[in-house]
Amino acid sequence: MTSQDTAQRPALRSQRLNQITHEPHQKLDALVKAHKPFETRENFARFVVAQYLFQSELQALYTDPSLKEIVPDLPERCRAEQAKADLADLDTEVPAPVAGAVNAPSKAHALGWIFVSEGSKLGAAFLIKRAVALELSDTFGARHLGEPAGGRAEGWKRFVKTLDGLELSAEEEADLDKGAVAAFERFTVLLEHAYAAQPELA
Ligand code: HEM
């Protein structure tokens, strides 16, 4: 971060989150691509394993009643079921849980994780186009990358608007940031785990 970046703190919370996760996002994007998920269905299935693990770890957050009060359609936003169906389409076993999942985070910390999970639906718009070459789609094998009901951009805008409108203490604000950064770290761990499980495909 340059001194200019430090001086210019974004006005909106979501912009701050975008800024602090920019580098982790770039690294993760490069790591995803390094595993060549669109080269074969087997490679893609490993990516789905990571997505499934991530989404299933977040299921408790997506269904949390106090978070649902903030984001009413939160449970419908979770993609664990779609990722599970994708695994079945790809003849891939549902993976065992991996130690180190997020556990009972504070409300703000949880929202940091959900920010990342929801944001990943934007990149998914690009990924699903590439999955078509493997004859996968939002009804087979790449369901979890599909357009959410009500629209991808619209769903994201609604989430961000809600997030930006919340009243948070300075401590919660810091917790939110930590949650977002932790989510990127976790996805990285799960991605490496998923490909390491079948080293010949990595
Ligand atoms: C687990 C978290 C995430 C993963 C695994 C992920 C993965 C990716 C990948 C692989 C791409 C490249 C697609 C391509 O070039 O074909 C991408 C693009 C993108 N992602 Fe993410 N992403 C995540 C989180 C986020 C978040 C939190 C945001 C927004 C706040 C976001 C916004 C975007 C956008 C706008 C693009 C397309 C344009 C660009 O590269 O900037 N992603 N993502």
From TrEMBL:
Q: Which Gene3D superfamilies match?
A: Heme oxygenase-like (1.20.910.10)
**Which stretches does the entry tag as region Disordered?**
1-20
Listed InterPro entries: Haem_Oase-like (IPR016053), Haem_Oase-like_multi-hlx (IPR016084)
The membrane-spanning stretches of this chain are none
- Which Pfam families does the record match to this protein? Heme_oxygenase (PF01126)
The cross-references to SUPFAM superfamilies, in alphabetical order and at most eight, read:
Heme oxygenase-like (SSF48613)
By what name is this protein known?
Biliverdin-producing heme oxygenase
This protein's species is Pseudomonas lundensis
